[in-house]
Design a protein that fits this description.
With 315 residues, this protein is α/β, with parallel strands linked by helices. The chain folds into two domains: 253 residues, Carbamate kinase, CATH 3.40.1160.10; 37 residues, no CATH class. It is 37% helix and 23% strand. The chain contains nine helices and 17 strands. The strands form four sheets. Strands 3-9-2-1-12-16-17-15 form an eight-stranded mixed sheet, sandwiched between helices. Strand 10 and strand 11 form a beta hairpin. Helix 6 packs parallel to helix 8 and helix 7 packs antiparallel against helix 8. The protein is globular, with a radius of gyration of 19 Å.
Length: 315
């Protein structure tokens, strides 16, 4: 196959955990391998691919374990949770891709780059934490934690109370040159997992991890711009994006221009808890010279690349 170009493929949480009944590590492996098979198909068609992924539930699990073991072990800071999950999820995807390449008779290798992403230490997000992490709690438990641990807590979409942490804006990918170099050498790279490990740059130029979670779609968009990707593909739970989602007047979208995407976003069609961050990330990518973005589900990746399904967003 001829070379098609360079793509950043951002895989959502559903590419690892399908539902609350399938959360164990073997379950996550099985789901990751399904997604990896579809991505291997895309590579077989001639695409060079950099994969990014979410890590919300996995970070929640580490924090919960850390809490349950508080009386015997030290807690794990949030930036270390990010690094741990980049390694564990990277390993899953590497192994699944290795096995997929083997089955398809392809000479390819995948590698994970533990990635740091610089945020501004004066980002207003640090004063206004909004990103829910970890398990749900009762209001009483949440307020007790706020008092004892200094946590920020808030009610999450009627489902209970949770800890919230800052979600600062990603500015720079520290390991960008390493990622580019690996891509140039023909590796499939897994990078910027969970939005990257948030770090701030101190006055002397050195880096220091911070307790925060970066939006994975925005960080993936920053990566796509940084490596000059021809395509930014976001793999999620739905085959296409809709206007008036789950309402009687719902409309599926096959195609949107950048201007239309901005207009629909401003009109509130894409809520912050679901499609909002993805559309925002795509707008940012296209405004900075990106050529095309696609949103679809993992099993529809090949068909979407042929233009048969998915929502295509173009400049």
């Amino acid at each position: 196959m001829g070379r098609k170009g360079l793509a950043v493929v951002a895989i959502g949480g559903n590419s690892l955990i399908k539902d609350p009944q399938h959360q164990t590590v073997p379950d996550q492996f099985a789901t990751a391998c399904e997604t990896a098979w579809h991505i291997a198909g895309m590579i077989e068609e001639g695409w060079d691919v950099v994969i990014t992924h979410g890590n919300g539930p996995q970070v929640g699990f580490i924090l919960l374990r850390s809490e349950l073991a508080r009386h015997v072990l030290h807690p794990v800071p949030l930036d270390s949770c990010g690094a741990d999950t980049q390694g564990a999820i990277g390993y899953m995807l590497q192994q699944c891709l290795y096995n997929a390449f083997l089955k398809k008779g392809m000479k390819k290798q995948a590698v994970t780059v533990v990635t740091q992403v610089v945020v501004d230490r004066n980002d207003p997000a640090f004063q206004n934490p909004t990103k829910p992490i970890g398990p749900f709690m009762s209001k009483e438990e949440a307020l007790k934690r706020k008092e004892e641990e200094g946590w920020d807590v808030m009610e999450d979409a009627g489902r209970g109370w949770r800890r919230v942490v800052p979600s600062p804006y990603p500015l720079e990918i520290v390991e960008l040159d390493a990622i580019k170099s690996l891509v140039d050498q023909g590796f499939v790279v897994i990078a910027v997992g969970g939005g990257g490990i948030p770090v701030i740059r101190l006055d002397d130029g050195s880096l220091k991890g911070v307790e925060a979670v970066i939006d994975k779609d925005l960080a993936s968009s920053l990566l796509a711009v940084g490596i000059k990707a021809d395509l930014f593909l976001i793999s999620t739970a739905v085959e296409k994006v809709a206007l008036n989602y789950k309402k009687p007047n719902q409309v599926w979208l096959d195609r949107m221009t950048l201007e239309e995407a901005k207009r629909y976003y401003d009109e509130g069609h894409f809520p912050p808890g679901s499609m909002g961050p993805k559309i925002k990330a795509i707008i940012s990518y296209l405004e900075q010279g990106g050529k095309e973005a696609i949103i679809t589900s993992p099993e529809n990746i090949t068909r979407a690349l042929r233009g048969e399904t998915g929502t295509h967003i173009v400049p």
